[in-house]
Amino acid sequence: MAVSTFKTIPLYILSLILLVFTGYPFLYMVLTSFKTQEMFFKDPFSLFTPVQFSNYVLAFEKGLTRYFANSLYITALSVILIVLFAALASYPLSRIRFRMSKALFMLFVSGMMLPIHSTLIPIFKLTQDAGIYDSLMALLGPYIAFSLPISIFILTQFMSELPREIEEAAEIDGCSHRRIFWNIVLPMITPALSTIVIYNFIHIWTEFIFALVLITSPENMTLPLGMQKYYGELTVNVPALMAALTMASLPILLVYFFAQEKIVKGLTGGAVK
């Protein structure tokens, strides 16, 4: 017991070092958000300062609520549709044998190699022609389209590893493919669904380039685009900017911790009895 404990000491030390490197920037951001401007310039690296919430009040006065609501709406809607479309596409690609299934799968996966910047002008023209330019709906199509390839790839590979005996038993009992998909396959791929939810939520929540090209009105700006405007307005007020960034980081942390728990549960749950 003592020998095995001694062998784990280097791992604990390495973990502690990684924790410091990854956790310090976030801790610095949060603690700086409670400083006044005078405190920050007097001692910018101090971690022990009196707590005051005026920076958070200023952040909301500058439009953080509007940017936050826009990002939450378009991110949640996009992630829900991505999960639905990716699961519906991955099921036949992985579980049903048909001609050209591999070619169709490679066509989906090839979308990961498409540079986003090469599509900005066509998407800009398309949204103008469709009459949805400068609206949150203009972001929905690109967000879904560029998130589907990686999502389909993950779900297809995960579904391919599921035991087919469960589906065969369900077919013998008279289950259709639709019922097998909704009642058996989906509960069993909870870990993969949690993975694509985390990945796509973070990606869309922090996406900037499409928002910059397709959104111009302040009332329709998402959080990353609003943060750029924020940075211009609060260039010298670093604590206020840190307060806005702290609030913008909270949804990502909540989604990650919630979905992380679902991944662990999904490893042992979901199979039919």
From TrEMBL:
It is a multi-pass membrane protein. One of its GO terms (cellular component) is plasma membrane. It comes from the Bacteria. It is found in: Cell membrane. It holds the Pfam family BPD_transp_1. Residues 68-259 form the ABC transmembrane type-1 domain. One of its GO terms (biological process) is transmembrane transport. InterPro entries: MetI-like, MetI-like_sf. Keywords: Cell membrane, Membrane, Transmembrane, Transmembrane helix, Transport. The chain crosses the membrane at residues 12-31, 72-91, 103-124, 136-159, 180-202, 238-259. Belongs to the binding-protein-dependent transport system permease family. This is Carbohydrate ABC transporter permease.
